[in-house]
Structure formats: C-alpha cells, structure tokens
Amino acid sequence: MNQQWIIVYLLLVACTHLSHQKSTPDSSTYIAAVVEYPPIYSTNSSETLRINSDAYVELIKNASLHNTDIIVFPEDGLTTIQLPEREKMGEWTTIIPSASANYIPCSQNTIEVSKTLKKISCAARDNNIYVVINIAEKAPCYDVPCPRDKVFYYNSNVVFDRTGKIIARYRKTNLFKEYQFNVTTIPEVVSFDTDFGVKFGTFICFDILFHEPAIELTRNHQVTDFVYSTAWFSEVPFLTAVQTQMGWSFAENVNLLASGYNKPSFGNAGSGIYLGRRGIGKAIMPTATHKELLIFEVSKIKKETKYNNNNYHSMDSSTNQTKVIPFHHGTNQHILLKHDSFEAYQTFSLKGNAIETVCQNGFCCDFKVEIAKVDPNTKYRLVVFNGDRFYGDVKAGIRTCSIIQCLNDSVSSCGSVQESETIFSNIEITATFHNYKNNLIMPSTLNPDLLPLKNWTFLDHTHNDHIHVNMFSNMHTNNLVTFGIYSRNFNKNNANRISFCIVNYFIILLLTLLLSKL
Ligand SMILES: *[C@@H]1O[C@H](CO)[C@@H](O)[C@H](O)[C@H]1NC(C)=O
Ligand SMILES: *[C@@H]1O[C@H](CO)[C@@H](O)[C@H](O)[C@H]1NC(C)=O
Ligand SMILES: *[C@@H]1O[C@H](CO)[C@@H](O)[C@H](O)[C@H]1NC(C)=O
Ligand SMILES: *[C@@H]1O[C@H](CO)[C@@H](O)[C@H](O)[C@H]1NC(C)=O
Ligand SMILES: *[C@@H]1O[C@H](CO)[C@@H](O)[C@H](O)[C@H]1NC(C)=O
Ligand SMILES: *[C@@H]1O[C@H](CO)[C@@H](O)[C@H](O)[C@H]1NC(C)=O
Q1: So what's the pLDDT on residue 20?
Q2: Based on the domain organization, do 46 and 179 belong to the same domain?
Q3: Which end of the chain is more exposed for a tag (fewer CB within 10 A), N or C?
Q4: 198/139 Cα distance (integer angstroms)
Q5: Which of 38-52, 205-219, 306-320 has the lowest mean pLDDT?
Q6: Who's near 216: CB < 8 A, 6+ residues apart?
Q7: Ligand 4 nearest-atom number relative to CA 318
C-alpha cells in the first residue's frame, strides 16, 4: 500500500471506532457504565461544581468511545457531601425542569438552570449517550405551606437522553440525616424509557432499604433495570456497599447499575453492575481514593421469563468477572466502617460442626455447619435477629439469620473483617418468613475484601402464607466474614405510621364532635 492508502485506512479505522454503535430495541443487550468517583471539594461552590462537572464531561466522553448507551454518576458527586446549612444552599443548587417540560438545557434558555446542568446536558448531546446524575435541586414554593424562604431543596437524580433533554427527575424519598433537604409529601415513583427498549427505574442511596419507591418499582411497576446513585456509608457485617447492592439486585432479580461516591476515609466507596440472579457483571470496593469507569454489556431481562414464574428459585450466583481491589489492613489504604451491634441478637458460638436452631421473637433459623479446618485467630457465631433497629434516626424492621466472624469469644468482638484460614466445607441456612409480602429478603455475604463470597446458592419458595428460604454452599470456603440472609420487614415501620395516623384521625374526630356540640 502506498502512504495515501495507509492514511485513508487509518482514518477509516478511527472513524469506525468513533462512530457510535447504539443498542436498539431489538438488541438483546445494552452497554452500561457506572462511575466510582472521588469528588473534589473547595469551599467555593462554583469552583467545586466546575471541577467535578469537568471531570464528568471527560468520563462521558470516555464512556461514549466504548459505545456506552447509558452512564450513571454517584449521589452528591458534583457538590460533595459537605453541603452547607440550608441558609447557604442557594448557590450549590439548581432549578431542574420536570420531564414534562421536554426541556434541553444545552440548547434552550427559557428556564434559568445552572451552568452545571447545561454542561452535562451538552455532554449527553455531544456524545449521544443517556446520562444520569445526582444534583442538589432548588424548587420555588408557590403553594402553602411553604418554608419561610419560599424554596424547597431536594436531593435529586436527573436523567438526560441522547439529545440532552431532561427525561426524568427523581427527588430522594429516604433521606439519611441530610437536614438541608426536603422530601415530597407523596414519594415519587420515577421511571423512564430509552431508545434501546429498556425501561429504567431510579432511586438514591438509602432508598435501597425501603419499600418506596424501589420495591414499588420492581413489584408493582414491573421495572427490570435500575440506575442508582449512592454515597453509602458501609456498615459491617451486613450493609457494606457492594454486598447490599448485590443483595438487592439478586433479591428482586433485576439489573442494577450502581454508581458510588468515593471517599473511603469517610466510609464511602463501592460501585457495580449487577445482573439479578445471574450474579455480578462488575463491581469494585476500593479502600483508597479511586476513580474508575466500569463498563459492562448487560443482557436485557425479558419480562415474560421473569414474571411467569411465581417462585423465584434456584440460582447460582457464581460472581463472574468481579474485579477485586484488595483491602489492605493497617496501611494508609483505609476505609472507615460502621459496625452493627450484636447486643440485641440471639447468638450461638460455633466451636466446630453444628446443627442448631436459633430463634428470636418467634423467628427461627436452622443452621447446619461443617468445618474442615479451624483457624484459632478467628471465631464464628450464628446470629439471629427479629425486631427493629435504627439506621441513623429511622426505625426499621429487620429479620436476619447469619454466620458472622468475631475476633474472640465475646459477642462485642463480632463483625470483624479479617482474613481467616477457617474452612467451611458445608453451610446450610434455612428460614421461614411469615408475613412475607412486604419483605425484601436478600442474600448477604462478605469476604475480607468487602466483596460478596462466591459459589453459594439461594433458593426461595413462595407458599400461600409464607416464604421458605434455603441458602447453602458446599464449596470449601475460607475468608468468611458474613454468610446469611438479611431481610427488611416493611410491615413494621408502616404499622407505626398507620397507627400514628389513626391516632391523629381519632383526635381530630373527637375535636370535631366536641366542637359541633358547642
Ligand atoms: C469562586 O470562584 C469563582 C471562579 O470560579 C470566582 O468568580 C468567585 O469570586 C469565587 N467566590 C469566592 C467567594 O471566592
Ligand atoms: C479517559 O480516557 C483517557 C484517554 O483514553 C485516559 O487517559 C483516562 O485515564 C480515562 N479516564 C478514565 C477515568 O477512565
Ligand atoms: C423543608 O425543610 C426545611 C429544613 O429542614 C424545614 O424547615 C421545612 O419544614 C421543610 N418543609 C417541608 C414542607 O417539609
Ligand atoms: C462469565 O465470563 C465468561 C468470560 O467473560 C463468559 O464467557 C461467561 O458467559 C460468563 N458467565 C456468566 C454467567 O455471565
Ligand atoms: C475480644 O476482642 C475485643 C476486641 O478486640 C477486646 O476488646 C476484648 O478484650 C477481647 N476479649 C477477650 C475476652 O479476649
Ligand atoms: C466456584 O465453582 C466453580 C465451578 O463450580 C469453580 O471452578 C471455582 O473454582 C469455584 N470458585 C471458588 C472461589 O471456589
């Protein structure tokens, strides 16, 4: 070939590489990207928003070079979580037009949105890609009762289509101690359609542990794919980030694209692309400051196959392609972890092989454990809980059956995260959940890298008035931190709210009666 032809050839190669191959409604897969992102903070709001949104634009470009159809960014990734008190929120926030406005911030000027929102809209448009961000929203308040400053602040997800148009906006329902923000009086249940034939639901961080809107979307709206932004504070042994994301996606058998805020020294890390009962596409749990774009080709879920089948059953969750960034003990790589307390748990100290039934408040778990080798430096306990706990200031119903790691024989040493040479050759846990309709029942497993264990099976069989769960592993498993079932019982906190409303209702009724007598 002469030189000219070589140049033409190179140009052609470059063009094919750059031209965007979009997935279509007929394709059986789509390409998803999630970002593990460590935001930069400066006390100057416009500097913070500028630096982080510039980084987003670079990541959007990178993703589109890999033919990504949709990219997800984390909660608070543009502002950081270091938001000021409510009075100073103005400059950190933006107006966000609702989806019904059909507004393209990049090319329209009739609504006064922030520079940041415009910039991301333009990046979506320039790169022909769906973009999901989380950003602090301000919404003028016109109706009574308004706050004194006549403005609501929301923690919101925004979705842009390939033209940069806002096609969805979701305001977080379950705030976690974020006192600057408001919540909507009726929880929003938000989903959006794409040109590749997938409908997505969206929710934020703490929402993953509640019925509204997440379970509402999977069970009542039959949504099969989710975009999820988070700034999670990992808690051992049941609620570290990837463990929880994987457990939720598995329990509901839906695809979950989870993007995590990265600041391990505060406890924030963990992102992944999860494929329901087909396991993990990719996931990372970095314990040092880390930026990464995770891209994965996701198989679409056919609704017929998912819903024709009342019993979700047998699935092997052998986690494929999981990328592991090792957890280094005692070095400058360090992730801050919260610890659950086991004082209120029913526990049983494992000394060797065991067949045990452990119960609490009428909820029983059957354990069968065989141990092939004992490492004297770690201990294990069977633990069962049925009751309420507080997440921050929110009360929540929990039922769990699990094997967890401890440092020594005292219960207070449980929830440790150590490498362990103890080898479990067989573990089987079974439990029956009555009153199950309003429950989220997740597998919960963890190793010292803060990633899920491999090679276990979780079977759930639905009967008339209960659900029977059987979780087992007969592979030789070492480095066990957590192995069990973790469930949220939504009936409990609903019950509290209902009784509260009923009490109010009767008081009002009584007052009305009294007044009418006067
Ligand atoms: C913040 O930074 C912007 C430039 O990005 C500058 O114009 C502005 O004056 C700064 N504000 C303060 C309070 O320093
Ligand atoms: C984005 O792409 C550029 C060029 O390929 C690369 O140098 C950079 O590391 C990428 N950034 C991320 C976060 O992937
Ligand atoms: C909105 O949030 C502010 C600050 O937390 C609070 O004072 C106000 O009552 C909230 N308004 C509503 C309607 O929830
Ligand atoms: C696991 O990964 C291999 C290699 O990438 C692939 O061939 C196989 O289909 C994957 N299995 C599942 C269950 O996704
Ligand atoms: C068990 O471990 C905990 C935590 O390391 C420690 O504080 C406690 O003293 C230990 N107890 C015993 C009995 O060794
Ligand atoms: C999981 O099981 C597969 C086959 O069943 C095996 O090849 C693989 O080594 C196992 N992985 C682990 C971590 O035990």
Answers
A1: 63
A2: yes
A3: C
A4: 30
A5: 306-320
A6: 187, 189
A7: 13
In a 10 Å sphere around its CB, with 0-12 CB exposed, 13-18 middle and 19+ buried, how is residue 24 labelled? Answer: exposed
Residue 75 known to be catalytic: yes
Average pLDDT score, the chain: 88
- Which residues form the domain of 448? 347-494
pLDDT higher than threshold 60 for residue 316: no
Q: Does residue 301 sit in the same domain as residue 356?
A: no
Give yes or no for residue 44 CB within 6 A of ligand 1.
yes
Burial of 62: CB neighbours in 10 Å, binned 0-12, 13-18, 19+: middle
Do 132 and 175 lie in one domain? The reply is yes
Would 3 be classed as within a structural domain? no
Residues 237 and 373 in one domain: no
**Ligand 2, atom 1: closest residue by C-alpha:** 62
Lining ligand 2 with CB less than 6 A are: 59, 62, 291, 293
CA dist 260 and 38 (Å) reads 9
- Does any domain span residue 426? yes
pLDDT digits (tens, 9 = 90+) for 403-417: 999 999 999 999 999
The stretch 287-315 carries a mean pLDDT of 72
Residue 503 CB-density burial (10 A; 0-12 exposed, 13-18 middle, 19+ buried): exposed
With a 6 A CB cut-off, is 289 part of the ligand 1 pocket? no
Q: pTM here?
A: 0.88
Q: Strand 354-360 to strand 363-373: parallel, antiparallel, or no bridges (unpaired)?
A: antiparallel
Domain assignment present for residue 309? The answer is: yes
- Does residue 292 share a domain with residue 175? yes
- Asked if residue 392 and residue 280 are part of one domain, the reply reads no
Q: Is the CB of 413 under 6 A from ligand 5?
A: yes
Hey, whose CA ends up nearest to atom 14 of ligand 1? 44
Indicate if 276 and 373 belong to the same structural domain: no
410 lines ligand 5 (CB under 6 A): yes
94 has a pLDDT exceeding 90: yes
Residue of the CA atom closest to atom 4 of ligand 3: 180
Closest ligand to residue 182's CA: 3
Residue 62 Cα to ligand 2 midpoint, Å, equals: 6
Decide: 183 and 175 in contact? Cβ < 8 Å: yes
pLDDT number for residue 302: 86
Give the list of residues 6+ apart from residue 93 with CB closer than 8 angstroms, or none. Answer: 114, 135, 136, 137, 138, 153
**194 is a domain residue:** yes
Ligand 4 atom nearest to 321, measured from its CA: 2
Amino acid letter, residue 263: K
What CATH number is associated with residue 54?
3.60.110.10
pLDDT in tens, 23-57: 999 999 999 999 999 999 999 999 999 999 999 99
* Total tally of structural domains belonging to the chain: 2
Which of the following is catalytic: 106, 118, 138, 205? 205
Tokens matching residue 30: 């789509």
Instruction: Tell me the per-residue pLDDT of 419-465, one tens digit each, with 9 for 90 and over.
Output: 999 999 999 999 999 988 889 999 999 999 999 998 899 999 988 88
CA of 82 to the centre of ligand 1 (A): 18
Closest residue by Cα to atom 3, ligand 3, is 182
Is the pLDDT at 334 greater than 80, yes or no?
A: yes
Query: Ligand 3 pocket check: which of 179, 182, 184 to mutate, most ligand atoms within 8 Å of Cβ?
Result: 182
Indicate which ligand has the atom closest to the C-alpha of 175. 3
> Does residue 125 have a pLDDT over 90?
yes
